[in-house]
């Protein structure tokens, strides 16, 4: 199955099983986020910020060093607690051999602590670079961060999701899911940012774009 088919299947199960009130509140939050105009993300033609972040083992990774190896697919995800993020990460893992053979770098970033990132990496059996952007410092530079509304925080808490525990702080801030294809100069040649966290880009499409840089 493709990523989009997996997402469609998961959404159908969620609609069947989740309380209607919960579904309505989550839909409301998505619509309000879209209307707010915040966290629109960097655009095609802009250059990404230069940064260093810790990987899942605690090793510092320089984005300049990664770009020196080839063009990059850079994906921001919310956390290993997010089922849609896990589906996306696993879909990229399926394409990893093709990505590596093309000389493309694949980097995933979330606000999780290194320990939480390691859990995500192990759970999904990921063999690519997973970085921890604690405090959403880099995601802020990419203009991706938003504050979750109080009523959505309550929905998450009632579902047993302690996002701050994953992120090592008291904030209920998240990055929008985002995908960037970046050339070796650091210029963004493709950007996809969505307010709806269930909307993702098919990795095959992203890989083909990266191959054509």
TrEMBL record:
Residues 42-213 form the Thioredoxin domain. CDD domains: PRX_like2 (cd02970). InterPro entries: AhpC/TSA, Peroxiredoxin_BCP/PrxQ, Thioredoxin-like_sf, Thioredoxin_domain. The keyword Translocase does not apply. Its EC number is 1.11.1.24. Keywords: Antioxidant, Disulfide bond, Oxidoreductase, Peroxidase, Redox-active center. Transmembrane segments: none annotated. Belongs to the peroxiredoxin family. BCP/PrxQ subfamily. PANTHER family: SLL1159 PROTEIN, THIOREDOXIN-DEPENDENT PEROXIDE REDUCTASE. This is thioredoxin-dependent peroxiredoxin. It comes from Bacillus carboniphilus.
């Amino acid at each position: 199955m493709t990523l989009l088919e997996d997402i469609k299947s998961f959404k159908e199960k969620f609609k069947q099983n989740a309380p209607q009130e919960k579904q309505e509140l989550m839909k409301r939050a998505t619509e309000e986020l879209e209307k707010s105009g915040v966290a629109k993300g960097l655009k095609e033609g802009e250059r990404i910020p230069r940064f260093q972040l810790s990987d899942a083992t605690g090793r510092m990774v320089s984005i300049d060093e990664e770009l020196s190896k080839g063009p990059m697919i850079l994906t921001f995800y919310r956390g290993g607690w997010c089922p849609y993020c896990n589906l996306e990460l696993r879909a990229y893992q399926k394409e990893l051999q093709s990505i590596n053979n093309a000389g493309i770098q694949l980097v995933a970033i979330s606000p999780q602590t290194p320990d939480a990132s390691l859990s995500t990496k192990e759970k999904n059996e990921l063999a690519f670079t997973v970085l921890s952007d604690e405090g959403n410092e880099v995601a802020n530079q990419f203009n991706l961060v938003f504050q979750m509304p109080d009523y959505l925080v309550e929905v998450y808490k009632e579902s047993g999701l302690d996002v701050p525990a994953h992120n090592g702080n008291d904030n209920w801030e998240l990055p929008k899911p985002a995908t960037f294809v970046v050339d070796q100069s650091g210029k963004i040649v493709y950007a996809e940012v969505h307010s709806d966290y269930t909307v993702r880009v098919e990795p095959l499409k992203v890989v083909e774009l990266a191959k054509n840089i």
